[in-house]
Design goal:
Elements lengths: L1 H22 L2 E7 L2 E8 L2 E12 L2 E9 L8 E7 L8 E4 L7 E9 L2 E7 L2 H9 L4 E6 L5 E6 L4 H11 L7 H9 L14
Antiparallel strand pairs: 1-2, 2-3, 3-4, 4-5, 5-8, 6-7, 6-9, 7-8, 9-10
Length: 196
């Protein structure tokens, strides 16, 4: 009888362990030149984002990430910079000197980083995908001095296409229709604890 109880307990533990293992997220990453695509599977929901990190003298300076907070949400770009920034200035991703770039307001600073984010429209996505020259990330430090961080667009289009294929968006915008030929949707994206 005791042996039957022990075997039943072991079977229950193994069964519980198996189901918790099945619920554990699975993470995959792939690098496309200077951009990395990360996809994570939670149960039956797959989320993907792409990002590029910049360092100067081995110290992290910035991170740029693209993704969707939910399947039906617009594509968002999130900028992470060190906390010593002039918040009213925001941050701008400049693709070239002829365009105004993509600007975002800082939303919060947590720990040792400040975050700014904004939606990306179809036109901005098209421009980012076709960039071959380096761009720059502009913001001001706390003393209101300009800070310029180089941004490489090498591999951006490939990373974007893979991210879109792995996690296609729902919706019918012209860009989504174009991507349907190449790939579709981006998954949830949570650069901060509350998902913004």
């Amino acid at each position: 009888m005791r042996r039957k109880i022990v075997l039943t307990a072991v079977a229950v533990l193994l069964g519980a362990g198996g189901s918790s293992l099945a619920q554990m997220p699975r993470l995959t990453t792939a690098t496309y030149d200077d951009w990395t695509v990360r996809c994570e599977m939670h149960d039956t929901v797959k989320t993907c984002e792409m990002e590029q990190s910049s360092q100067i003298q081995g110290q992290p300076v910035s991170q740029i990430a693209l993704g969707r907070p939910s399947k039906s949400a617009p594509l968002r770009i999130v900028f992470q910079v060190p906390i010593n920034v002039w918040l009213p200035a925001g941050v701008t991703l400049v693709m070239d000197d002829k365009e105004p770039g993509v600007s975002a307001s800082f939303k919060r600073c947590i720990g040792n980083a400040c975050f700014a984010d904004t939606d990306l429209n179809d036109d901005a996505i098209k421009k980012l995908r076709t960039r071959t020259e380096n761009g720059k990330l502009l913001f001001k430090d706390a003393a209101q001095r300009d800070v310029t961080v180089p941004v490489s667009f090498k591999g951006f289009a490939d990373a974007f296409d893979v991210m879109a294929k792995e996690c296609p968006p729902s919706g019918t915008s012209e860009w989504v229709q174009l991507l349907a030929v190449v790939a579709p949707h981006l998954g949830a994206f949570s650069p901060t604890p509350d998902g913004v």
